[in-house]
């Protein structure tokens, strides 16, 4: 995906060349990839484009939407096109409005509050969660997360009341009736959707939280300062952390792996051009993807600090640190 609007779709099996390519006229603002089908959605300006692959592997444009506002967030509804004959549903946030997009019908408004822009978005099989800026000048009306039912378009819950903007929310990966959020106030919060109450609050980032995900027992959060934290949600304690140069824009973990994408705020170094000889400045402004594999042989040099014994005074390995280090042995 390029700033010129070009989109390349790659196969994780055949990764030598893109399996599909298409072009937008302007810079791409958001992209969404289906986890349960061969479909991808991108938005550029006021245009949303849905591309999918048929049973023979041929990619084509499935549908194209035109909205009246600039799109900032885009999500594909999981499970919406698993069975043949069903349309792939999309949810798009454009400024202060959230739309449900179905190729067979006109765009449907799920949420709209004039002047209160949407700050984050996530979608599960039957629910939508969106962060919304403060409702007004009154201090009691802080920033919130609104949860809606996809089938009925009715509001289900209103979460939080924070002075900082909600910058990320994870609904589809969270356990039933729970949602995890990240905020500019540097806190990670978990809410119970049945009561709309906060059940967990974690504080460990120096800057705003930019990405979150949780499962039955752990929470992983990434921050603007480049810190990735793994939390034990039942005890509310930090288990592990890793620091990188650039902010953590995306993260996703599975049973044994963790993938993070660190993207700099400033992608072009000031005063440097492609013709300059100093490549160090350019490397500092490159984003990087980290893949952590926790299933490999414990003797491999992945986390030396985690293999320290009580015979050692301290455990240390560059930018890796345990939140509860070993006691000093005297």
Automatic annotation (TrEMBL):
Q: What InterPro entries does its record include?
A: WD40/YVTN_repeat-like_dom_sf, WD40_repeat_dom_sf, WD40_rpt
Protein name in UniProt: Uncharacterized protein
* SMART domains, per database record: WD40 (SM00320)
* Organism encoding this protein: Scyliorhinus torazame (Cloudy catshark)
SUPFAM superfamilies (alphabetical): WD40 repeat-like (SSF50978)
Q: Which Pfam families match?
A: WD40 (PF00400)
């Amino acid at each position: 995906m390029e700033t010129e609007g070009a989109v390349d779709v790659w196969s994780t099996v055949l990764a030598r060349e893109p399996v599909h390519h298409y072009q937008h006229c302007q810079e791409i603002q958001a992209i969404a990839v289906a986890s349960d089908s061969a479909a991808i959605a991108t938005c550029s300006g006021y245009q949303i484009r849905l591309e999918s692959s048929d049973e023979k592997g041929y990619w084509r444009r499935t549908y194209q939407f035109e909205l009246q506002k600039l799109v900032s967030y885009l999500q594909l509804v999981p499970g919406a096109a698993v069975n043949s004959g069903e349309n792939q549903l999309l949810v798009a946030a454009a400024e202060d409005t959230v739309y449900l997009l179905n190729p067979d019908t006109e765009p449907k408004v799920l949420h709209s509050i004039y002047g209160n822009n949407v700050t984050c978005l996530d979608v599960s099989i039957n629910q939508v969660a969106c962060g919304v800026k403060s409702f007004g000048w009154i201090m009691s009306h802080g920033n919130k997360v609104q949860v809606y039912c996809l089938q009925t378009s009715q509001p289900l819950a209103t979460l939080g009341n924070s002075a900082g903007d909600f910058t990320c929310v994870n609904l589809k990966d969270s356990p039933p009736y729970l949602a995890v959020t990240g905020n500019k106030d540097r806190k990670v919060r978990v809410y119970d959707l049945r009561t709309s109450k906060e059940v967990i609050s974690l504080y460990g980032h120096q800057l705003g939280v930019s990405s979150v995900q949780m499962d039955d027992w752990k929470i992983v959060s990434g921050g603007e300062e480049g810190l990735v934290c793994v939390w034990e949600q039942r005890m509310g304690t930090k288990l592990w952390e890793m620091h990188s140069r650039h902010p953590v824009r995306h993260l996703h973990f599975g049973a044994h792996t963790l993938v993070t994408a660190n993207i700099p705020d400033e992608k072009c170094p000031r005063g440097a051009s492609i013709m300059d000889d100093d490549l160090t400045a350019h490397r500092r402004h490159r984003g990087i993807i980290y893949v952590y594999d926790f299933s490999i042989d414990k003797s491999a040099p992945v986390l030396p600090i985690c293999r320290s014994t009580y015979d050692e005074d301290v455990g240390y390995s560059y930018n890796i640190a345990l939140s509860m280090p070993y006691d000093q042995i005297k």
